[in-house]
Specification:
Elements (H helix, E strand, L loop, with lengths): L1 E8 L4 E7 L4 H7 L17 E6 L2 E2 L11 H5 L2 E3 L4 E2 L3 E5 L11 E13 L3 E9 L10 E5 L6 E5 L8 E7 L5 H8 L5 E8 L11 E6 L4 H13 L5 E7 L8 H10 L3 E7 L18 H4 L5 E6 L1 H14 L5 E6 L10 E4 L2
Parallel strand pairs: 1-7, 14-15, 14-17, 15-16, 17-18
Antiparallel strand pairs: 1-2, 3-5, 3-7, 4-6, 8-9, 8-13, 9-12, 10-11, 10-13, 18-19
Helix pairs in contact: 4-5
Length: 345
């Protein structure tokens, strides 16, 4: 038996290692050419201290209180030289990946399908040449634009473990990736680097509220694939907001999730006043107090910076602090800003 351990470095890079039953994380990482911080490896110095964000593990008793206090252990801090996982885990490493003599992985892919959604977005699917990337639902990769040195960052909309990767890409007038995809053909190669990002689905222990703006829908499609496959007893509600009618894409896929995932509901809204859509305005105009569950909710938000700031202000106005508020900002032609998590009281 073995477990998958995601190591999230502070520069946004995620690397996955395999940890055998009874094996310590530090030892497993070293055997897979990732040098996590360490001095003593005996639970004495505390140099290898990290934070376990998800998963089950045993820390044992063979370490000093000076290296890891009881309060730190209660908050999920671990010593990787002593930590023995008993499930898949996610560990935040307080160093850049380069300091641990590793970095993002590179993947060669070929374009399998390109679908144009008018002038709003493009959906591409790619087959991986060799081993497929391992990622957590919500993460993104950097995709190289053929014929240039430029890259663009896009969230996976496909589920982890899928043999074909998919992405939902905003069409940007004059944008380098948009221009390339307009002339690209099936079979052309794309290089991807990653995965990256701290915006990923945590274990659902509370109701979930998903807030998507435009092509910020992409990571939620990956999350919903995982939730549908694993089952989820928690209520899940999504608000999906766009600017124009034609920006509202893949609604039929969300509808299909309501059949696969009985606890999932969603609503859409369009901000332009010229629309005939039944719900006009911004996402914050349609946030029902029942969706916030009095603060006992995990909120995930992916959208442009103004949307993120508007939602944060809305929570302040209504006086609700979600138990967990995880958001990722993105702008065209730029990598997503580092995801942030605000924990409730």
């Amino acid at each position: 038996m073995s477990y998958s351990i995601a190591l999230n470095f502070e520069d946004g890079v995620t690397r996955f290692i395999t940890c055998r039953k009874g094996e310590k994380v530090l030892d497993a990482a070293f055997l897979q050419s990732i040098n996590l911080p360490m001095d003593c490896s005996d639970g004495v110095c505390g140099t290898c201290k990290c934070r376990c964000e998800q998963g089950k593990y045993d820390l044992g008793d063979d370490y000093l209180e000076d290296a890891l206090s009881a309060d730190e252990a209660a908050r999920g801090m671990v010593l990787t030289c002593q930590m023995v996982p008993s499930s898949d885990c996610v560990i935040a490493v307080p160093l850049p990946s380069t300091a641990c003599k590793t970095g993002p992985a590179r993947y060669d892919t070929t374009i399998a399908r390109i679908e144009h959604h008018q002038d709003a977005a493009l959906e591409i699917e790619c087959d991986v040449v060799g081993a497929a990337p391992v990622f957590m639902p919500g993460q993104y990769v950097h995709i190289g634009i053929p014929g240039s040195e430029q890259t663009r960052s896009y969230s996976f909309s496909s589920r982890p473990g899928a043999t074909r990767l998919s992405f939902l890409i905003k069409r940007v007038p004059g944008g380098a990736m948009s221009a390339y995809l307009d002339r690209a053909h099936v079979g052309e190669r794309l290089e991807m680097v990653g995965p990256s990002g701290s915006f990923y689905l945590r274990e659902p222990t509370r109701p979930l509220l998903f807030l998507a703006g435009g092509t910020g829908l992409a990571p939620f499609l990956s999350m919903l694939e995982v939730l549908a496959a694993n089952g989820c007893a928690q209520p899940i509600h999504m608000l999906y907001g766009v600017t124009r009618d034609q920006d509202l894409v893949l609604v039929e896929r969300l509808q299909a999730f309501t059949e696969r995932l009985p606890t999932f509901t969603f609503a859409t809204c369009i901000s332009t006043s010229e629309s005939d859509h039944p719900r006009k305005g911004h996402v914050t105009d349609h946030l029902d107090s029942r969706d916030l569950h009095g603060g006992n909710v995990d909120v995930y938000l992916c959208g442009p910076p103004p949307m993120v700031e508007a939602v944060r202000r809305h929570f302040d106005i209504v006086g609700v602090k979600p138990a967990r508020f995880l958001y990722e900002k993105f702008t065209p032609n730029a990598s997503p800003a580092p995801a942030l998590v605000e924990e409730g009281a």
